[in-house]
Write a structure and sequence with these properties.
The chain has 468 residues and is of the alpha/beta class. The protein is built from 16 helices and 14 strands. The protein has 3 domains: 259 residues, 3-Layer(aba) Sandwich (Rossmann fold); 95 residues, Anticodon-binding domain of a subclass of class I aminoacyl-tRNA synthetases (Four Helix Bundle (Hemerythrin (Met), subunit A)); 53 residues, no CATH class.
Length: 468
């Protein structure tokens, strides 16, 4: 069997052959730290978590890097509005990010570089691009000459003129071309700044990822992931500046982009969740209403390149379907030997189906269908009083393959502990409402938590909770 990945660059599925046999250098665009992450971010991070898990399952050693953008216009604006620093803003949202990713059973990356941590490399790349004629300085700003980059637009599959016609371009008469983009920005009064050969300033957005890749992976990587919304201009600009700097070495071998998630009820012009628009559903709110396995199963039930509209009813349906998988592995015992029976044979057929589905550009819907078929037969055999050892091998296979998709198959009460930070936040909010004598809203929080299986107990020392 051969793993094939759809490459945005070539617009076709390609056999996966990493630059270094047995090793995968993987980079996934992380969050901009001016606000919390929404479930659209979770969609992307779950997708690439499964990509990593499957590559490891297939025997590859994967080094996964995901960045934090901690210097950018909106972070600066938020810090100024709240009379704090960008570092303080970043720490708040990084802590929340890890809490939410852990709750969703997303494996942590091997490295989480921050843009502010690679400023020397950003300056080095910018200086090199200027020396090679790919960039120029204007009043302390440094811009990249897009028309000097060979095949600019090859990722988006559009000509420069087509991209210019459809882009929102801020008018700046100092630029040689409207499409030229900033590598370095001269600092304004009150903004964070670093010394550079062109004066105090800060990096542009696109150069950050090129620098972090260079530091963490070197000049060439195997997989670069992100949402379809960053193909242009972000990833297009990454290619241009990285390959121009390194001497046109192919920057990324396989470009992977997940489709976008939107609210089914969203009637705005936006076709995706967007924090600056406000049509978002925060991960914290999702986890207060749904168990993590159900969220993962819902987001993986559609192929990652197919757009998805979020509805709570669909996630609830996935939670009901999960019960069939849980029932199949309930009270499982380790296999002491492999029985040659119909279930064992089906388990091996399921493994082959699972691998075939995932080898075809990570076909999670077909992989999930294979798991459900195996679970159905395990449950049928259990109902017919099959022995524990007769079930054991098939149950072990089901749990192993579910784990490749990041599904824990744990009972909800056990998983409730993963939601503890969010429950504590709701308890604190309820206490504030009670102090403000908004008892109706406080009671609503108690009642809604009860529906989710969380019972609150008020006492002299405060409020405690337990799973129902």
């Amino acid at each position: 069997m051969t793993l094939k990945i759809y490459n945005t660059l070539s617009r076709q599925k390609e056999e996966f052959i990493p630059n270094k046999p047995g090793h995968v250098a993987m980079y996934v665009c992380g969050p901009n730290l001016y606000a919390p992450c929404h479930v659209g971010h979770a969609f992307s991070y779950i997708v690439f978590d499964v990509v990593k898990r499957y590559l490891k399952f297939r025997g590859y050693h994967v080094r996964h890097v995901q960045n934090f953008t901690d210097i950018e216009d909106r972070i600066i604006a938020k810090a100024q509005a709240e009379n704090t620093t960008i570092q303080a803003i970043a720490e708040v949202y990084i802590a929340r990010f890890f809490d939410e990713m852990d709750a969703l059973n997303i494996e942590r990356a091997d490295a989480y570089p921050r843009a502010t941590g690679v400023i020397p490399t950003i300056i080095e790349i910018t200086r090199g691009l200027i020396e090679k004629g790919f960039a120029y300085v204007v009043d302390g700003d440094v811009y990249f000459r897009v028309r000097r980059a060979d095949h600019y637009g090859k990722l988006a599959h559009r000509s420069l003129d087509e991209m210019e016609a459809g882009a929102r371009i801020e008018v700046d008469e100092r630029k040689e071309d409207p499409m030229d983009f900033a590598l370095w920005k001269a600092s304004k009064p009150g903004e964070p700044a670093w010394d550079s050969p062109w004066g105090p300033g800060r990096p542009g957005w696109h150069i950050e990822c090129s620098a972090m890749n260079l530091v963490e992976h070197g000049e060439q990587i195997d997989i670069h992931g992100g949402g379809q919304d960053v193909i242009f201009p972000h990833h297009e600009n990454e290619i241009a500046q990285s390959e121009s700097y390194t001497g046109k070495k192919p920057f990324v071998k396989y470009w992977m982009h997940n489709a976008l998630l939107r609210l089914a009820t969203d009637t705005s012009a936006e076709d995706k969740m967007s924090r600056h628009v406000g049509n978002t559903l925060w991960i914290r709110d999702v986890l207060a209403r749904h168990e993590p396995d159900a969220v993962r199963l819902y987001l993986l039930s559609t192929h990652y390149r197919t757009p998805l509209a979020w509805t709570d009813a669909d996630v609830d349906a996935m939670a009901r379907g999960l019960e069939r998988l849980r029932a199949a592995v309930k009270d499982a015992v380790p296999p002491t030997h492999i029985e040659d029976n119909a279930l064992t044979q089906l388990a091996e057929q399921t493994r082959a189906r699972f691998i075939a589905a995932m080898d075809d550009d990570f076909g999670t819907p077909q992989a999930i269908a294979a798991l459900y078929d195996l679970a159905r037969e395990i449950n049928r055999a259990r109902n017919e009083n099959a022995s524990a050892q007769t079930l054991a091998s098939a149950q072990a296979t089901l749990r192993e393959l579910a784990g490749v998709l990041g599904l824990t198959l744990q009972e909800p009460k056990t998983r409730m502990m993963h939601a503890a930070p969010f429950i504590e936040l709701l308890i604190a909010t309820r206490q504030e409402l009670r102090a403000a004598k908004q008892f109706a809203l406080a009671d609503k929080i108690r009642n809604e938590l009860a529906k989710l299986g969380v019972l609150l107990e008020d006492g002299p020392q405060g409020t405690t909770w337990k799973a129902a």
